[in-house]
Amino acid sequence: MAQGHMIPFTSLAKRITESNPSMKITIVNTPLNIQSLKTTLSSFPNISLSALPFDAARHGLPPNSENTDTLTPVHTVRLFHASQSLQPHFHALIAKLIATVRKTPICIISDVFFGWAVEIAECFGIAHVGFSTGGAYGTAVYFSIWMNLPHRRTDAEEFGIDGFPEEIKICRSHLHPNLLAADGSDDWSVFFQKQISLTLKSDGLICNSIEEVEPLGLQLLRQNTGVPVWPVGPLLPLQWLESLFSGSGLRGDGKKSGIEIEKCMEWLDSKAEDSVLYISFGSQNTISAPQMMELAKGVEFTKTPFVWVIRPPMGFDLGEKFRPEWVPEGFGENKNGLLIHGWGPQLEILQHRSVGGFLSHCGWNSVLESLSQGVPIIGWPLRAEQSYNAKMLVEEMGVCVEMARGAGSRIDAGEVEKVIKVVMGREGKGQEMRRRAGEIGEKIRRSVRDDGEDGQRGSSVVALEAFLGFLMSKRELH
Ligand code: UDP
Question: Which residues span the membrane (predicted)?
């Protein structure tokens, strides 16, 4: 119920119906989320939308809270628990669907956080597949840590992860405060442990990853869950996927954006290749006012051209008008910087040739979008599985320098300057990171190729086919 989940779900629906036009998909969610998908999906005849009744206020949530984008942590966990109230409505919907389609096989694909959907699949004897919108490594760590709470067994700063090779260690600082405080009886543990265990009873998992991009993560996820895992990524926003498939330039509608796309592209056109740093913390996160000030000072010290999608700092209303005192005087007002308020056309920005680095919270969609364009990352993970993503980007892929970790990080302008200079550098580590990111970008593009010049089929296309083959094998159940 966050943008980072909704986007890969719609993208998956599109990939499936295009791969097999006889498939019909119903996307099920709460009324406002369904409303928000109407325009995006109106031109896909095989994808329909269905809203289940949901009254946020009944669950002690602010009115109309149907996704986590603007919720406080207390409300976020309340919304998670409240999502279980959809179960009887979903049960009724599946019963109706089964009566309508009779002998056609049905499969429920649900977010790994909605394990309760497995109980409905079991009840009707139909297939169920969990969908992790994250990467394989991040998902494997996330599952293992929530299920085993390893930090409860030790006082050490650094410790192993159950089901992982011994040499892979995690630090307390990787764990979000909710997880650090979790003891198995708190609201977060109760929700995640139950939903993850249910999800592990699925017939398989779909993962927003690519076989050759995350070999270790996929090996661990398969080994630790014991179910088939189909890496059918990259499941990126729809217009982004179009451009990967067709090789055409991008043109979003820019409706939500805080800047007209043309203006943004014009600004980027005026900059040298790989010279611009793009800064954004995703769809849900903001940083504190002092952090924002230090970050801005550090960026300014480097004289690196930048585009920053800037939001009011923590503690301010997200709709609050931008205040100049949040950043150093004159910041972003000269030719060297572009501040975009609220929401930016991230897809188009990352695809522009002048963008050479991404300062990101390491949300998985942002990671895939960046790497698919060969753009190295400066990581500042803030929550969820983002710090595990950053760990993998640094240790396994060598495409990231972690600048800070967690919402409470102390940010120092001098340190910011150093890291940016390394990553944006034309030589040494920066150059090597860019080379590696370029290689991964090539792998990502190859993975979605269906009939390349060499007749090779991409691994993502093959994985999707394997998943559809699995669905067909379930036919005899009906
Ligand atoms: N996004 C965007 N413009 C913004 C912020 C985010 O287009 O100003 C998109 C971004 O391209 C990505 C998604 O929102 O597809 C964010 O997902 P991610 O997994 O990176 O982070 P989350 O928002 O879930 O923390």
Answer: none
